[in-house]
From TrEMBL:
Name assigned to this protein: short-chain-enoyl-CoA hydratase
Catalytic activity: a short-chain (3S)-3-hydroxyacyl-CoA = a short-chain (2E)-enoyl-CoA + H2O
Source organism of the structure: Syntrophothermus lipocalidus (strain DSM 12680 / TGB-C1)
Record's keyword annotation contains Protein biosynthesis: no
Listed pathway(s): Lipid metabolism; butanoate metabolism
Pfam families: ECH_1
Length: 259
């Protein structure tokens, strides 16, 4: 697929996706969603890529859905478009590899919802995050009412979604929406450092741990613990688990091979 709304490059085992619609602050169009689904499929099958960074440059991570487009859709088309949003963001959330959102400038509406689908969120100082949809007579329906609640709790989710007021990076850190706040000029360096750290872990372990963590927000604890038990037992069949345990005993660095 020819990419029209984003850029993709690989660097030392890290896949870097950059939104590339600067004139509209990286507003998310149907083309963007198709390209995101395509890239997640490609990355899933690319053994060279161990971790992914999604970013949008210094001005905006993504300003949300393309309002000029959304203003023209009817209810049937709206449901189709939102299903595509869910498919695209689910493809990020369910990728077997870690995904980091490197956020600068602003992340509003669908842009913030995409960040929620990532595993770890890093924000630059001065970043604004929010869900202004209520001011347009709608609400964040690309996962916002579900993922935000699970991440920051019902109180902050209601505050952000029902007021439409943005929050700054420091507030986002305090409520757990992001886990790191860095200087703007350090954002990509810090994201790459974290990506390299994650990429050095045993990939099978990372995949299975992510599955367990994702399950934890949608299953009861008994079911989650049962899945966790079976998952860790499976890991003991891998070469990487044996390598990691033996490396610890032998006081050396583990050499994980993804087997």
């Amino acid at each position: 697929m020819e990419l029209k709304t984003m850029l993709y490059e690989k660097e030392s085992g890290i896949g870097i996706i950059t939104f590339n619609r600067p004139k509209v602050l990286n507003a998310i169009s149907p083309d963007t969603l198709d390209e995101l689904i395509y890239l997640m499929s490609e990355i899933e099958s690319d053994d060279e890529v161990k971790c992914v960074i999604i970013t949008g440059g210094s001005r905006a991570f993504a300003a949300g859905a393309d309002i000029a487009y959304m203003a023209k859709v009817d209810p049937v088309e709206c449901e189709r478009v939102m299903a595509k949003f869910h498919q695209a963001f689910d493809s990020v959330a369910n990728l077997s590899k870690p995904v980091i959102a490197a956020i600068a400038g602003l992340a509003f509406g669908g842009g913030c919802e995409l960040a929620l689908a990532c595993d770890i969120r890093i924000a630059a100082e001065g970043t604004k995050l929010g869900f202004p949809e209520v001011n347009l007579g709608i609400f964040p329906a690309a996962g916002g009412t579900q993922r935000l609640t699970r991440l920051v709790g019902i109180g902050w989710a209601k505050d952000m979604i029902m007021t439409g007021d943005p929050i700054d990076a420091e507030t986002a850190f305090k409520i757990g929406l992001v886990t790191r706040v860095v200087k703007p000029e350090d954002l990509m360096d810090e994201a790459k450092k974290l990506a390299m750290k994650l990429a050095a872990k045993a990939p099978i372990t990372t995949r299975v741990a992510k599955q367990c963590l994702n399950n934890s927000i949608s299953t009861d604890i008994a079911s989650g613990l049962a899945f966790e038990q079976k998952a860790v037992a499976f890991l003991f069949s891998t070469e990487d688990a044996k390598e990691g345990l033996n490396a610890f005993i032998e006081k050396r660095k583990a050499n994980f091979k993804g087997r």
